[in-house]
Amino acid sequence: MNTSEFPHEIDIITRVVTKSETYPFKETVQETVVPVRGFMDTPSTSERLTYHNMDKQLTRALYVPHSVQPKRTDIIMHNGKEYEIIGDVEDQGGQGEVNRIPLKEVSS
Predict the structure, then answer these.
(1) Which residues touch 4 (CB under 8 Å, ≥6 apart)?
(2) How far is CA 87 from each of CA 19, 36, 61, 92, rounded to the nearest angstrom?
(3) pLDDT in the model for residue 37
(4) Tell me: the pLDDT tens digits for 37-90?
(5) How confident is the model at residue 79, as a pLDDT?
(6) Cα–Cα distance between 68 and 39 in angstroms, integer?
(7) What backbone phi and psi angles, to 5 degrees, belong to 17?
(8) Rounded Cα gap, residues 64 and 36, in angstroms
(9) What is the DSSP letter of 94?
(10) Could you tell me which residues are beta bridge partners of residue 72?
(11) Is the sign of the CA dihedral 105, 38, 9, 68 positive or negative?
């Protein structure tokens, strides 16, 4: 993987919540953090408009190697900011090399 193509350090966080089956009920949250390299891009005005027309706010587009396949429920962290995945992971260009992931910044 070429680090100049993917210059940003990204964390993909998977959160699993389990609930106890006995009273008093308790929730346990387990987080798994997977560090990856990617390219965090600002979407164009037309891309933002397309998502706006679908009642979604697009703040960033993340490009990662094709081997990186986050789930829709995963959280993306970059530079201390948290993002949620708001669309499907797309094979950019259909070549099986780079995935594009639409993101929305989550307010803290």
Answers:
(1) none
(2) 28, 19, 10, 14
(3) 94
(4) 999 999 889 988 888 888 888 999 999 999 999 999 999 999 999 999 999 999
(5) 93
(6) 13
(7) -105, 125
(8) 8
(9) G
(10) none
(11) positive
SS3 content of the chain, % helix, strand, coil (to 5): 10, 50, 40
Positive/negative CA dihedral, 69, 29, 9, 86: positive
Helix (H) or strand (E) run with residue 104 in it: strand 98-105
Cis ω for the linkage preceding 24 (within 30 of 0) = yes
**Alpha carbon distance, N-terminus to C-terminus of the chain:** 33
Query: Which residues touch 37 (CB under 8 Å, ≥6 apart)?
Result: 1, 3, 6, 7, 8, 9, 10, 64, 65
Amino acid at 7: P
**Residues making up the chain, counted from first to last:** 108
Give the global pTM.
0.82
**Position of tokens 């964390």?**
11
List the structure tokens of 56: 């979604």
Alpha-carbon distances, residue 36 vs 68, 73, 76, 100, 103 (angstroms): 8, 17, 10, 14, 16
